[in-house]
Amino acid sequence: MRITLKQLVIFKAIYTHGQISKAAKALHLSIPAVSMALKELEGSLGNRLFDRNANGLSINDNGKVILPYANDMLSKSLELEQIFSESTTGVRGSLKIGSSKTVGNYVLSRKIPLFKKAFPLVEMKLLIDNSLAIESLVSERELDIGFIDVKPTSKNLHTQRWFSDRICIVTSPENSIVNQPITAELLSEQLWVLDQTHSMSHMRAIQLLKSAHVSVNQELTMTSMGAIKRAIGTGIGVSILPWLAIEEEVERGDLSELVLPQWCHQRNYWIVTRDDDKQADLVRKFVEFCENEKPC
């Protein structure tokens, strides 16, 4: 059995693009060359790695077994190149970063350009998705590092708590309830503008409101915090949002935080990396940067 890095690169490209022709285009190779490399890899392993479907190729159970090993080998190859290139050209390499919505949109979107300025030779990509998806992608070596708001459960990940953020009840200053004593009964009469149904944020919001004896009798769901903030900014409706997402609007007077007695909830944010990577130098540099630059 002889498996080459080129075969693994092609395997990964086919997995990513779902078609041999698209993989060939992405790698600047001919279609026959990509097909031959896949055939040789499958021959070496004695198993097919993809199933054909109407749209092209989809990874099968055999391919899913190979995927984390391929990611690991390709990652180690890149790390080796970085070790020898850094001594002559400075810190360089690539970082694939994953993040949940809040910290991705309101923290990392600002911190990544600062890190890039300090290390201009580092290529950086940020993927924003839900915490469970980010955790899975880090575990499967699709991402180098993840920033999530749900404590991870994957046993092959190194986990460290980053910081905590307040969870706030918020509305527009134009909403008449701003000038009234805030009670569970009053909030139960409001239109609640929340994250999309079945999302983790939506479930957590409902649980927190229920614990405060607030009933959600009228509800409007949206797919982004930006849309939610604009909706309640009309003066109609209230929402639950993290302080990170509303800090600037509250300071400008565009939104108002409502104070419900005994409401005191926080959300923890976590950094996840792979335990067996021993945190490669570039990942470690970024973690240290984020630790030093985390919000207060």
Gross morphology is: elongated
Low-confidence stretches: none
- The helix/strand class is alpha/beta
**Annotation, overall tally of beta strands:** 11
Order of helices and strands: HHHEEHEHEHEEHEHEHEHEEH
- What is the residue-mean pLDDT, rounded to a whole number? 88
Distance between the termini: 54 Å
- The proportion of strand residues reads 15-25%
User: Biggest sheet: strands, sense, closure?
Assistant: 7 strands, mixed
Explain what you see.
This protein is of the alpha/beta class. It is built from eleven helices and eleven strands. It has helices at residues 5-17, 20-27, 31-45, 61-89, 101-118, 131-139, 184-188, 200-211, 225-232, 243-252, 281-293, and strands at residues 50-53, 56-59, 92-99, 121-128, 145-148, 157-171, 191-195, 218-222, 238-242, 256-258, 265-274. Strands 3, 4, 5, 6, 9, 10 and 11 form a seven-stranded mixed beta sheet that branches. Strands 1-2 form a two-stranded antiparallel ribbon. Helix 1 packs across helix 2 (20-27), helix 1 (5-17) packs across helix 3 (31-45) and helix 1 (5-17) packs across helix 4. The protein is elongated. It starts with a helix and ends with a helix. The mean pLDDT is 88.
Task: Put the structure in a nutshell.
This protein is of the alpha/beta class. Helix content is 47%, strand content 24%. It has helices at residues 5-17, 20-27, 31-45, 61-89, 101-118, 131-139, 184-188, 200-211, 225-232, 243-252, 281-293, and strands spanning 50-53, 56-59, 92-99, 121-128, 145-148, 157-171, 191-195, 218-222, 238-242, 256-258, 265-274.
